[in-house]
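Because discrete structure vocabularies remain unfamiliar, we reproduce here a specimen of the format, pairing a chain with its fold in token form:
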Amino acid sequence: MPDKPTDRIRRLLQTARQAVKTLSSTLDELEEQLAGLEQEAAAQVDYLVPDDQAEVPQLTPEELEIASVKMLLTFQEAAGLLGVPVAAVRDMVGRGELPVFKLGRTVRIPRKHLEEYISEDGRPSLVEEEITVPKKEKAKEHIQKNHAAQVIHRDKKARQKTNAPDSKDETSLINKKPLLTVEEAAVILRLHKISVYRLISAKKLPSCRIGQAIRIPTKALEEHIEAVRAGEREG
């Protein structure tokens, strides 16, 4: 018995429903992955965090002992030995102050180059001995100053890339929406969106989740702006 037209239509509808369901599931997965990447991006901006807030790697005594005699160091180990954030070590490498060695797809810092950087006379020291405290503190101070300058420079460039609205646009955007996207908050604050992620990550700007998306309550943004302005008045 041949199919009725209605049977064919039902089958087509069923196939369409299944396709929509599959697409919906795929979209949910993509949104979840995107949210994860957003969080990852926020976590990877430690190079934008000032030195008094950036986390310095704390090596265990065992790790410190191993790092002190290794010929090739990870960025984490080099930062732990120097007592500075990993981002500061990245800055040194980026400026060409600290040569690196590529080992396959990984990058390592030869210990002798770290010692050369710390050494006051600049002579290489290949012996496996502890780096003296005065030299280490002097190097640490120099690294932190350079890192702070890099942070200010990068943040300034990020601000320049952001299209700053006039006060009328800013007010209308705040009044119009109870929740703002990270991009909208960045426009209002006249910051790069990575700087907004930094504020969220440092818990200086409250945020919430709507499904898998990150949103910033307008009230929280207004309070943050007021706090910044109050700080500027006091300063």
